[in-house]
Design brief:
The protein is of the alpha/beta class and about 280 residues long. Helices cover about 50% and strands about 10% of the residues. It has 2 domains: about 70 residues, Orthogonal Bundle (434 Repressor (Amino-terminal Domain)); about 150 residues, 2-Layer Sandwich (Endonuclease, Chain A), CATH 3.30.870.10. It starts with 12 loop residues before the first helix and ends with a helix.
Length: about 280
């Protein structure tokens, strides 16, 4: 075939997905235009995804599965490609997060992803690339996933979201002053939503702080509980109530020791204005 670009599935997650899409399409004997017509998009779009120039979305993958009659094969492959750069265990957590009716977060040192501005997330990603911790493509994938996770919060009805930020999250400068100003503004806007509670755990809590590491507790639609925490190499999901309930009790204690909502917002406002 003239101008056919050979694909190396090992090159990147996008290339692996593109190679799979091409193979399934060619098994049907369809051109890119023919598949595009069945999916309601252009052949050029199909070409861009197959050659890794454009990332697949879950919507695109689901549409391709329907057109090709492949069940959810491409959708699962797309999800795997998007999550390949993440800690083991985190992709499974994201699936639970998207269905949770209550989300409880405690974060230390950095604003949690669900509350990050695009610029804040990009600055964090850029730092990992510069330090050689990850590739540019993987950093971009993580930023895209943050946007996808934030979008799931707009579902109806929205989940209740309880957030406790260690004071270090607010004091650690990421990017320039303009970036931090926008991020702190985002936190204040978040605190005004009807389905959120935002608190700050100040340094002066001292030994009364019941937990020192970040943790998330999810309440699922059937009221079951799931906790998630990360080590250096992987994420850990816990579904046993006997293990999650003590974590939830510690979280409630942390909320009681933290600043009330109004005082937390006042602290963020002062920092945004540059006040000590």
């Amino acid at each position: 075939m003239v101008n056919r670009k050979e694909l190396d599935p090992e090159q990147s997650p996008r290339a692996a997905f593109g190679a799979l899409l091409r193979r399934l399409r060619e098994e049907h004997g369809w051109t890119q235009d023919e598949l595009g017509n069945r999916m309601g998009c252009s052949g050029a779009h199909i070409s861009a995804v197959e050659t890794g120039r454009r990332a697949s979305t879950q919507r695109f993958a689901a549409s391709a599965d329907r057109a090709l009659g492949t069940g959810d094969q491409l959708k699962r492959a797309s999800r795997s490609a998007q999550h390949r750069s993440l800690l083991e265990g985190f992709p499974e957590y994201v699936d639970y997060e998207a269905r949770a009716v209550e989300i409880r977060l405690y974060e230390v040192g950095v604003i949690p992803g669900l509350l990050q501005t695009h610029e804040y997330a990009s600055a964090l990603g850029e730092s990992t690339v510069k330090r050689g911790v990850t590739s540019r493509e993987h950093a971009d994938e993580r930023i895209a996933l943050i946007a996808q996770r934030q979008a799931t919060l707009a579902r109806t009805p929205p989940p209740m979201i309880f957030v406790v930020l260690d004071e270090s999250c607010l004091l650690r400068p990421i990017g320039g002053s303009t970036l931090m100003d926008a991020q702190l503004t985002r936190l204040m806007e978040f605190s005004e939503l009807p389905n959120t509670v935002l608190q700050v755990a100040p340094f002066n809590i001292g030994v009364r702080r019941p937990m020192t590491l970040p943790v998330t507790v999810l309440t699922m639609p059937d009221r079951s509980l799931i906790s998630y925490a990360e080590s250096a190499n992987r994420g850990h999901l816990e579904r046993e109530s006997s293990s999650v309930l003590p974590i939830l009790a510690d979280y409630h204690q942390l909320q009681a020791e933290s600043l009330p909502r109004a005082a937390s917002v006042a602290m963020i406002s002062k920092l945004r204005k540059g006040s000590p």
